[in-house]
Amino acid sequence: MLAKYSPARLIRIISSFVKNYRISINSIFALFFALGLGLSLISACSPNNTSNSPATQTVNQKSTNQAVVVRIGYQKAATILNALKNRRTLEKTLAAAGASVTWAEFPAGPPMLEAMNAGSIDFGYTGESPPIFAQAGGTPLLYIAYDPWSPKAEAIIVPKNSPIKSVAELKGKKIAFAKGSNSNYLVVKAIETAGLKYSDIKPAYLAPADARAAFEGGNVDAWAIWDPYLAVAQQATGARTITDATNLAPNRGYYLARQAFVDSRSDLLKTVLDEVSKLNNWAANNPKEVAKFLEPELGIKAAVLEIAEKRREYGVLPLTDKVIATQQDIADTFHKIKLIPKQIQVKEIVWKGNK
């Protein structure tokens, strides 16, 4: 109750008690104890109390961040995140905020997003198709930004001595591509444009390494593939391109994040995006250096990788209505040919913070 009075008022009350009631010394001590408690409470409520000052809040935030580990999934062929891992600039930036980072390598986008679904990673990068399958499967993720990459960076190729000259001539032929991949979508759009149906071809669902063996061994008639594997096949075998993805498929990449991470630590997400953007700017202007970096990582000659680098684009761009609509078209196409079990709405999982 005494905490309601000012120190001066409390002293006057004590003086009055001593004068009028001749209370004992022990009582005076008790009152001084109460006064000390009151002053403590007053001090705690004082505007000058530093527990809620900006400096203290910064320290508290940093203390909280120290328990935060940003877990990033990457693929070796995904240039930017691979380079970001090796340069260790993100570690320094996050350390300044009191947080840290771990890295997990994946062979492809689908297992990476399975890990995101399990809560094992917070951030990653894949091509167009894996997030569509992940959304259809209920993975709690968000599209954060997109990478324009390039429609020139994927194509349908045939052996150099093949009699096939056009997409229309693929009717009844066996075409290798990874199921549910960017190149799967390219095949669907290419044959539709040529007046064919998906049932008019014989899909051979193969991962890039197996597809290359089948292609070079003459076990398939054509191969739909993306860079850098496309550049390797062209340089090593003299393969001919019957169409690339121009006017057929956008061939974009997407930066994705776990919903819970976005909700709880959007500040750290923005820190990651800032570092990714800086490295994108470097890569866009240094294709030769990027190729040299990737050579030991991928086991592909730098000269071949440089070809792939020069025909792609870089960027960390917010998703526009047009980009979302194109991604929706891919989802609708996969649903139509029964690659995903249900209709999905891409716009429902687009992050609004990167505008």
From TrEMBL:
List the SUPFAM superfamilies hit by this protein, alphabetically: Periplasmic binding protein-like II
Cross-referenced CDD domains: PBP2_SsuA
Give the family this protein belongs to, as stated in its UniProt record: Belongs to the bacterial solute-binding protein SsuA/TauA family.
Cellular location of this protein?
A: Periplasm
UniProt domain Solute-binding protein family 3/N-terminal: residue ranges: 69-286
Can you name one GO molecular function term for this protein? ATPase-coupled transmembrane transporter activity
Recorded hits in InterPro entries, A to Z, give: ABC_SsuA_sub-bd, Solute-binding_3/MltF_N, SsuA/THI5
Reading the lineage from the top rank, the first entry is: Bacteria
Q: Which residues form the signal peptide?
A: none
CC per GO annotation: membrane; periplasmic space
Job of this protein: Part of a binding-protein-dependent transport system for aliphatic sulfonates. Putative binding protein.
UniProt organism field: Dendronalium phyllosphericum CENA369
Descriptive protein name: Putative aliphatic sulfonates-binding protein
Keywords of the record: Signal, Transport
The record's Gene3D superfamilies line, in alphabetical order, gives: Periplasmic binding protein-like II (3.40.190.10)
Known PANTHER family for this protein? Answer: ALIPHATIC SULFONATES-BINDING PROTEIN-RELATED (PTHR30024)
* NCBIfam families listed in its UniProt record: PRK11553.1, SsuA_fam
